[in-house]
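BUG: 3D viewer hangs when loading the predicted structure for this chain

Environment: internal workstation, default settings.
Expected: structure renders.
Actual: progress bar stalls at 90%.

Input used:
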Amino acid sequence: MIIVTGANGFIGRYLVQQLIDNGDDVLATGSSDKSKNYFKDKGIPYETIDVTKKEDFDKLPNSDAVVHLAALLRIDRDKHTALDYIKVNGYGTFNVLEYCYKVGAKIIYSQTHSDIDASKDIIISEKTERAFTSSHEISDNVYPFIVGKNMGMDLIMAYDNDGVIPAGIVFRLSNIRGYGSRDTRYNCVFHQLIQKAINGDPIEIWGDHKTVRDMIYVKDVVNAIIKAINSNTAHGLYTIGSGSGVTILDEAQAIINAFCTKKQSKIIFRPEIKEVRTKNTIFDISKAVQELKWKPQYTYEEAMIDYKKEMKKMGKGG
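Structure tokens produced before the viewer hung:
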């Protein structure tokens, strides 16, 4: 039995579906009864639990592994208090760990890259030390979000180091691309590029476009999680990304190739406008490649082609 918390989230939906397709015994969990209908329609067992309530874990059957994706997200910082973030992301993870200790299950935890965003390192590895800051006002709850996630990570590493659970595995994830992500709320540059490509509109590239960022496709993340579930030796922290960087020009060209069907978007270079991206970041995935026997299957362009397929599957066109 594999239990997935936060199953109705971005990564969770892809993961649960892939596990089902693989023939695994899965229980999806989430904090809302509304999610039950989504999984019920797919014939997938679902249980409503609040990770901050220890008694809710009495509802769960024994399991071999828990993929802990449940968390309050940074993107919703206007909806939550600082205490909410500490309780759900920190204390909630403690409750998940206590359940794992009780039933003898391993845990796989999704850590954001926000804990190292202020690092001066270009190559991010398991040895990269925490360095985080915020461009937002403190009242925006960005710090409580990061600290709450760090609490969850530290708890898991402690349980793993002490051997009180079969394995504690933490994935520090690079920037994830995939249809269904919550960042559509902000109409960020990525989604603007896709819409321009669909319309065949011109796309501007600012600055000298030399900054590279590590982008990984959501289905590659899911594959890494499944490798960790099935591994008998995996422990501790893994940096999970593509292992290479793409520039904004690389992104734009891949999106144009995937989404332009009627009219080809023209790229217009605007070197006089400062590039928004200024920090180069590439994730060193060598530990995951060696120990999990995993590597990304999608190039950035292949990811965009599959993204378009997922859009059409959901009736969103493109």
